[in-house]
Amino acid sequence: MRKKIPASTIAVLFLAVMRVCGQPAPQPHRMPDGKPDLNGIWQALNTANWDLQEHAARTGLVVAMGAIGAEPGGPGVVEGGEIPYLPAAKEKKKANFESRLTADPEVKCYLPGVPRATYLPYPFQILHSAKAIFFAYEYAGAVRNVFLEDPGPPPADSWMGQSVGHWEGDTLVVDVTGLDERTWFDRAGDFHSDALHVIERYTPLGPDILSYEATIEDPKVFARKWKIKMPLYRHVEDNARLMEFKCVEFAEELMYGQFNKKAEK
Asked: Is 250 domain-assigned?
């Protein structure tokens, strides 16, 4: 079988070829202070939300939905191909997969956490200046503020955690801690504990494409650090904007239907 080449690698090779051929490589938009301009609406175009690791297409969990509810395959976004679970954690991951129809936090409209918010099949928006960076997500109206000065340890765990950012050249590096242990990484049941630590890297590869990397550390669940990597694409449509996806009302019957008052016969 021929080895699959990640889209982000293809993008880097394309830029390198342009330089060798004497063509100017496309440059990212820049802010007045010279930093890359990441303002805009971005989206991952992959199947990482179904499964971070390589996976074949499979029948959906609701058979009545036929092809509409089937799960698409994908080459995976995990560096090295495999998530390094500790033995007990690997068994829990398998149990999560078996019960994913009701156990996946996405089904219940829980906020997605980091890094999952990045590659859900919904766009998100970055708004920033020299003094502030803010992320807004279409899914469930999730948001997070990226501190540019470290405020100290997070006061409590939360769904989206505490994000502290800084620039390393053209790369925005975001250190995320204080993440609620109830979030998952994907619909395949990949999970973490309350010890999760994520370091994200957003690097422009041109005016409308970012390389996104997230290094995952959680000694309670994983044998070592591991990384995911993917490209993110800027929406360039004239009417590009975040739409509303307030999914709480879509999950109410699933979550609380058993408490509805039953009609008397």
From this structure: no
